[in-house]
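Entry, Tuesday afternoon. Goal for today is a structural model of the target with 3-isopropylmalic acid bound, before we commit to ordering more compound. Inputs were pasted exactly as handed over by J.K., no edits. I checked the ligand SMILES twice against the vendor sheet because last time a stereocentre got dropped in transcription.
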Amino acid sequence: MASRSIRLAVIPGDGIGPEVVAEGLKVLEAVAPSGDLAFEQTSYDLGAARWHRTGETLPDSVLEELRGQDVILLGAVGDPSVPSGTLERGLLLRTRFELDHYVNLRPVKLFPGVKTPLAGVTPDDIDMVVVREGTEGPYTGVGGVLRKGTEHEVATQESVNTAFGVERVIRYAFEVAASRPRKKLTLVHKDNVLTFAGDLYQRTLKRVGAEYPQVSTDYCHVDAATMFFVGQPQRFDVVVTDNLFGDIITDIGAAIAGGIGLAASGNVNPDRTAPSMFEPVHGSAPDIAGQGKADPTATILSVAMLLDHIGAGEAARRVEQAVSDDLAERGALGARSTSQIGDAIAKRVSG
Amino acid sequence: MASRSIRLAVIPGDGIGPEVVAEGLKVLEAVAPSGDLAFEQTSYDLGAARWHRTGETLPDSVLEELRGQDVILLGAVGDPSVPSGTLERGLLLRTRFELDHYVNLRPVKLFPGVKTPLAGVTPDDIDMVVVREGTEGPYTGVGGVLRKGTEHEVATQESVNTAFGVERVIRYAFEVAASRPRKKLTLVHKDNVLTFAGDLYQRTLKRVGAEYPQVSTDYCHVDAATMFFVGQPQRFDVVVTDNLFGDIITDIGAAIAGGIGLAASGNVNPDRTAPSMFEPVHGSAPDIAGQGKADPTATILSVAMLLDHIGAGEAARRVEQAVSDDLAERGALGARSTSQIGDAIAKRVSG
Ligand SMILES: CC(C)[C@H](C(=O)O)[C@@H](O)C(=O)O
Ligand SMILES: CC(C)[C@H](C(=O)O)[C@@H](O)C(=O)O
């Protein structure tokens, strides 16, 4: 049977990025035959090393090459030797914005056997999906600084929100909610303070919601939401929120669902006008880089999301199941290295 | 002995506000003699009812009266019958801004006997103070909406940060840190995305920090900070952060330290050019208003902060100790009403 060929761009990045990506690819190779998939991989040398060497973060020519790919797998970017924001804005956010990744999809799910810091909480209590807006809000980079370094300095940051941008992400969130058993969508914002942006989100939720009578909707201020994540995570099914609030609440989501080593994400362009990009939520963790200590599970779960995105749902389920089985046994297994975890999961998907 | 007379403005506000404020005042009256204090109370009818009656949130004349007071105690404002933001912006935030409450002081402390949702955490693990900026950042109200209601709508919110505003709150935070045993100050921001504002905070931390060699400093992105609040709260001693990040992390702080029913705060004008205002972190909770279900402890702890602010440290310690003793016994006491809790604590401080 002819297998489908997928052009896969790989951006290992900095710190533990290359290590966890290697395990993600290992699992991808292991599951590919069952999904009748062949991956044509291109690896892109982007991140701190390149910046030190050339001063480049994401050259236009590389961005154009990325546009020609089907899908992207990214490890992590950022290093203390590079001024804060340089790689984040110049590489990671630039990719999200240029490739119109307007949905930043972040499941928050507690797998059986995984330790949560919350007392008395079971896997049934934590199972949600956060749909974070990915291309506007406070992440636009709009703003500036006046009289820098003087006592009269003024530094501004502007959150820009458009009807176009808000509607498309809310519509996507309704679709996700409609596909899930509970069919509940919660908007998280701060509409009592950020009144202009909050009002746009609220009106759009109401208007688009009229097309989804089967989905119940709810609203929660971001400050209260963080409290409910810790005290009452059952409250949430699908959450839609802006770029910055989504950044914050998905880290709490990771914390309650067993830690950043398990949190996967997809930067999705649902209209498929450009390739989507899958990456673990964690950063480059330079302090543990190169020691085989990083947990590749978040990257492997991101690979499952990648498989879903390219239409290989059955392969995605196999990877998820393998991860779930591996997690269920971890407590009994003792410490394993990055590649030992990758090997074990790869073995399960192929076996 | 002549007692000192303090002009106290009381804003009971909406929902459970009046109920919890009544208990706060009960405790204040009970502790006053020992502090040689006499309070000259003026109650201000502000909140949802007044807005419905007159359309006013905070009339200029009332604001001027408030300026003439020594200190303010506020319950809570906000009601679902009033458009979101009307009272928050028109009353609460207006007071904070007009009276230059540039320090929003929020202790996060787990008292012995209090249940935390975190597994395996003891009171020694959670003892920090968040110094939240209170007069700028994304709370300025700067921003607007263009082409409202059309598909071309644009809604903006601007975070405005000044050298003046950032320096004074950071300086205050260093003073707090220097007064505590651990002497550790952590800046929480998002300087890899909000580069202009984050850079101003970072440079100011470094510059002011040179004057406090005894205080160690640290930086944490807001998303990671929320994760550490849940997984590693021991990491924090004093935290300084902007207005919006402070709003969010102090709600997680409340969640890990036993819930919003216990979280106190002070909107402080350290230069004493206008009265400071003390209030529980919680909102007006209209769903449980008038039922005697609200926990007045957060308001009573806010009263302790108020006492500290007016120089009645000994009375403040008595209130804190009474709360601490009450909390230690709560587990054994079963459900009590709002006024029963207030009575019990008042009895302890006077007895
Ligand atoms: C690295 C940083 C720019 C990024 C973000 O803020 O989006 C990260 O925290 C994330 O959540 O993917
Ligand atoms: C009611 C609201 C405007 C307020 C804030 O955002 O500051 C509240 O959440 C708080 O933390 O005091």
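The first strand of chain A starts at residue 4 and ends at 13.
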